[in-house]
Structure to design on (272 residues):
């Protein structure tokens, strides 16, 4: 699961012009490798152009919640919500099989290796008590299930499963929980219970805290964890080894890329 990518790019979400502007900064000579943090599509104005570029250039990413949702729409499991989704032009391109096949090659978690530094990339986050082997095992559990029966996986992944569950108890609910951890998680309790609704800081009376505020077992083996998904943070985690790179481009903010070696961040402003 190792790759020599140098940069990780935040949530593109159909912001094609900003994506191309960012590539000019981080990869002007097309020599630097980069990886994406998921949510390549949806909400932004040009998801179909992002997909075209991703397919033509074989761009790799971890899976985000919007990427999974696109797959479900293309397979006829979910309807395109014209009030919220902006992926109609992707559907009209008649490239469903090509898109699904490419997305099926994406993991839920990926370790990038560059100059002897190891960076874990996930869309939303990981559980604090997971070791690296736990992360990779959960990723393998989901990716193998998704690849073996995409229709079954995508049709049963929706749901606000908040509580952890063992493999032997209920496989469907366990998959839902793991998908929510990797692609939707923000706030959790010290017992790994998820709050999938709140996007801003809770009061001190609440049990729920940002997932990255807990002590993480995996950081004994990693140099960094990079995640997206949480635009409301504007990248602020107050943690030296856990970096958020969703700067809300689709909401008028910026599109960011982080250099996994020196942790420097390059941004381009949203094009209005």
């Amino acid at each position: 699961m190792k790759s020599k990518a140098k940069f990780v790019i935040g949530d593109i979400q159909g912001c094609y012009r900003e994506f191309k502007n960012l590539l000019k900064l981080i990869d002007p000579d097309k020599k630097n490798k980069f990886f994406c943090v998921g949510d390549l599509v949806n909400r932004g104005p040009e998801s179909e152009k992002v997909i075209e570029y991703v397919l033509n250039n074989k761009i790799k990413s971890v899976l985000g919640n919007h990427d999974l949702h696109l797959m479900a729409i293309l397979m006829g499991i979910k309807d395109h919500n014209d009030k919220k989704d902006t992926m109609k032009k992707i559907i009209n391109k008649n490239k469903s099989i090509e898109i699904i096949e490419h997305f099926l090659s994406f993991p839920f978690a990926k370790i990038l290796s560059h100059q002897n530094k190891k960076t874990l990339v996930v869309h939303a986050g990981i559980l604090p008590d997971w070791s690296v082997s736990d992360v990779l095992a959960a990723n393998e559990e989901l990716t193998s299930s998704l690849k073996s029966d995409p229709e079954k996986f995508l049709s049963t992944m929706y749901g606000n499963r908040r509580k952890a569950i063992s493999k032997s108890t209920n496989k469907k609910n366990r998959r839902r929980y793991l998908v929510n951890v990797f692609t939707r998680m923000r706030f959790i309790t010290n017992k790994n219970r998820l709050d999938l609704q709140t996007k801003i800081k809770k009061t001190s009376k609440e049990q729920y805290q940002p997932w990255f505020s807990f002590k993480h077992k995996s950081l004994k083996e990693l140099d960094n964890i990079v995640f997206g998904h949480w635009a409301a943070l504007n990248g602020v985690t107050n943690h030296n080894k856990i970096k958020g790179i969703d700067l809300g481009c689709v909401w008028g903010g910026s599109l960011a890329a982080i250099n996994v070696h020196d942790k420097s961040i390059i941004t381009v402003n949203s094009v209005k």
